[in-house]
Amino acid sequence: MNPTIPEASDDGEHSLIVIGAGTAGLPCAIGAAAAGAKVLVIEKSHRIGGTLHYSTGHLSAAGTSLQRKRGITDTVEDHLADLDRISHCLSRADLVRQAVTAAPDTVEWLLDRGFDVDPETPRILYGHEPYSIPRTYYGRSGGLSILEVLHGELEKWQRRGSIEVWLATAVVGLRATASCIEIETEGRHGSRLLTATEVVLATGGFASSPELLAEFDGAPAAVSAASPTSTGDGLLLAQELGAAVASTGRQLPGFGCLEHPGTSGRIDRTVERVALIAQEREPAEIYVTEQGRRFIAEDDPSIDRKERALAALPGWQFWAVFDAAALELPGPRLVPGWSVADFTRHANARPDLVMADSIPGLAEAAGLPTGQLNTTIEDFNRFAGGAADDPLGRLRGRHPIGRAPYFALRLRGQVSVSFAGIDVDSQLRVRRADGSIIPGLSAVGEAIGCGATGGDAYCGGMMVTPALSLGRALGERLANRACAPRDRSVADLQTPPEERADR
User: From start to end of 43-168, where are the E strands?
Assistant: First the structure.
């Protein structure tokens, strides 16, 4: 989906400027317009939507009409209790309560505007640590189903003259004066200097910036599934104004993916997905480290435990080792989209899949220690043959690894979000390190870090839903206090602020 947005005019005044036209920025602008504000949205990409083009678009909410139709009883307090369990109580309790309280209304708001919800929802999903109650929803087209609703609302307010959108326009500088925030832009509209009393940073995270991932989330070189535009622009801009960064210094990797063979450091989940969720597939392989040792029970039902075990490995990578017999078992294969012939065809042609007629040959091809890999497989085969319990606690998948050819598939920890973000107060106003507020500057969505609503874990639906809910509420709130900004010429960019104030 690539919504067509009409070209913006260069005239007119705006009472609020939103930087970023994605999961949080669009509902923020829509909420502000609905409350009577005139809004300018600035987006560096050539299209709106941000991470919704890449996201599964999972939502979570308690007490919705969809749950009631299924006879599911659920409450906000139940939702909060589940989140405390999954996030280890490390999220922002004030923001989480706001988001969870508003979540059912957000789902109904989408449904009332034609959200193409998948009829299988609400469900309990196991891609993240599961909820105790079915409260996860998504559209038939993932994040694009949400974008379709937001696009329709955006067009409505554009026709009424309440929202103006500048695409292909980057914000390259922020400055604070005594009365406003100055925004320096470059792009389709040339070099401009805008001013506003209320500015919202809804620029997303930095999961496509290896440098920022290492600096703020403590992540090694990882494979990114995020939007290429998720480069931390908002965080860097806020820091220019003295904003503090809220960070635990820890990123939790998604448990294993295939790096795109043609694009280093990227993954395309729509093309090649790896089936590593124990509830969806009985494993026939073992997972080994670069030292040739197993590190987690492959059938462990907790994806959270698997992710934390992977986070402890240097480089966040491991090998899935299996034999020819594993490819002939019924049910999904390790890579569901591949046939047996595909495994053979890709083997030794791709750098992440090797094949050999012996275990020593496989170890050499994968760069694993031969003696240790051989010992690991022998120990596992004793468990698989019923002669011993598995020391890691594996219970299922008693398939010995003993029939050539043998395969080793390298899997990488993936990042799709960033956990650190701009520090904000309970009203989403940006804070400095001393706790003081930067007047006129707010932030919402992944710009404030996914750790704010998920702690140090992946909580299903607690990235997209808070962005929508808190974004819309923030827009409504700011509409009541924003005033019209002033647009100045590029010549003013060279003029000191104190001189411009006299003009």
Answer: 59-60, 136-137, 163-166
